[in-house]
Each structure stands twice: as C-alpha cells, then as structure tokens.
Design brief:
Layout lengths: L2 H16 L5 H4 L6 H12 L10 H13 L1 H7 L7 E7 L14 E7 L6 E7 L8 H12 L5 E7 L7 H4 L5 E4 H19 L3 H33 L1 H8 L8 H13 L3
Parallel strand pairs: 3-4, 4-5
Antiparallel strand pairs: 1-2, 2-3
Length: 264
C-alpha cells in the first residue's frame, strides 16, 4: 500500500465519524464492552422483553441466521413464541480432553419455552478465544439439550473464524456485526415502521437506529482503522512523522500508539 492509498483509506474511515450526529451510545462509551453489546442484543432477542414486539425481533434474527446456514436453522426448528433470552448463562463446561468441569458463561443464551432447544451465541469483539471454548459449549449443550437441539453462533466484528483450538470438530454459524447484525437491525427498524403506532415505538426505533449507526460509524470503522494500522505499522509511523497530511491525524496517532503498546 502506498502512502497516498493509506491516507485515502484513513479519510474514508474517518469521514463517517466526522459527520456523526449526537448518539447516546458514543457518550456512554459502549464501544468495546462485549458485556454491554451482548445485553443490548439479548434485550431485543427476548420475546418477553420490554420492547413489546414479542418474538418478532427474534424471528428476524433467525431469518438472518438461515441466510448463512439454512440447513442448520431448519433442522433446529426453533419455536420463537414465548421463548426467552439471557446473558451470562452459567455452563459448567467440560471438553473431551479435560474431564474436570470448568466454570463458564455463555454470552447470549436463547431458549425455547419448553427449554429443550437453544441458540447459543458467543460474542467476540476484540477478545481472543478461550482454550477449547466452543468445544466446551458444544459439550455442555450436547449433554444438557441433546444432539440437534441447539446451534452455536460465533459473532465477531468481521465474521472471522473461531480458532482451531476453540472450535475443531464443532459445527457453528459464523456471523458478523458488519453484515448480519447491521442487516438484522435494519429489519427491526422496518418492522417497527410497519407496526409502530405510538410514542413508545418511536423511542424504540430511535434507540435501535442509533445503535446501528454507532456500529457503522464508530465501532466498525475504528476496527477497520486499527486493522489497517496493524498491517502497515512502518508506513503509518512515517506518515505521522510528517506535517499534517489529513484531518484527524491525532485519532490515527492515538490508535497507532494503542496498537504499538498492545501485546504482540
């Protein structure tokens, strides 16, 4: 990548941030907190949630999963009516190699009314996979629910694969914030527009719209910037040592320092 191409890349990523309107998620600094992101997503997936849309948002989410891995979703035949969702679901996880149970918590756990079927979501923003993590979830779910009664969903910013150590031999669905979650949030907004009739629906619409925009303009763009910097450290350092070549040079400098100080 040339210096000119890199500066253009920086400007393309920074441009949406410059034009960002007031967004409550920016001010509460939600950015990289996986627990908070999981809580927000769970609240929409919960058919008993205070959003008053029952299982409609969950149905839309399952529709997005079906686009990625249709056979797995159809075979699960998950009944959304009166289902529920939780975060930090306790699961005493045991892998095939480790017979001694180890405490673990599933980020988002969506279960059917009869609690016999589940959608297990592992939410990864920046954190690395834990040792044999998806293997442990798979082992726990197989013991608790039985084969064919659950799916494991691996959610990351860009849809990357889980590590081999975490996932070898485990069937799971890869989804991303930059495609699956954004498309799902758009569908949720469209559903509100279709059915919403009062002020409470408008507040819900504004909240979901702001979260979608926050992901698009802030979280995903910053992740793209960080990835670009990691791949071009020497060139970025050279650019930062020169006179100001583009607006918001300080933002790039801060991200460069953060990347430079992070464990290799």
């Amino acid at each position: 990548m040339t210096e000119e191409e890199l500066i253009k890349k920086f400007n393309d990523c920074l441009s949406p941030m410059r034009g960002e309107e007031f967004n409550v998620f920016h001010w509460i600094r939600l950015r990289w907190d996986e627990v908070d992101h999981s809580g927000l997503i769970k609240s929409l997936l919960n058919s008993k949630g205070i959003h008053n849309f029952e299982d409609k948002f969950l149905t839309l989410f399952i529709n997005e999963l079906e686009k990625v891995k249709p056979e797995s979703i159809r075979n699960l035949n998950f009944l959304t009516k009166d289902s529920s969702a939780d975060t930090e679901q306790y699961a005493p996880l045991t892998s095939e190699k480790e017979k001694k149970p180890k405490n673990g918590r599933i980020d988002i756990y969506v279960k059917s009314k009869d609690q016999k079927k589940a959608i297990i979501i592992e939410n990864k923003l920046l954190a690395k996979d834990q040792k044999e993590q998806l293997k442990r979830y798979d082992s726990w779910a197989r013991t608790t629910l039985g084969d064919g009664n659950y799916v494991i969903v691996y959610l990351t910013l860009n849809g990357r694969e889980a590590s081999k150590n975490s996932s070898e031999g485990v069937e799971y669905i890869q989804i991303s914030y930059n495609e699956t979650i954004i498309n799902w949030l758009k569908a949720c907004i469209a559903k509100i527009d279709e059915e919403g009739k009062d002020e409470s629906y408008m507040r819900l619409r504004i909240g979901i719209k702001q979260y979608k925009e926050y992901l698009e303009r802030r979280v995903l763009k910053e992740f793209e910037l960080t990835t670009t910097i990691k791949e071009n450290m020497d060139l970025v350092k050279s650019i930062l040592e020169k006179e100001d070549l583009f607006p918001d040079k300080d933002t790039i400098a801060q991200l460069y320092d953060k990347v430079n100080k992070s464990p290799k």
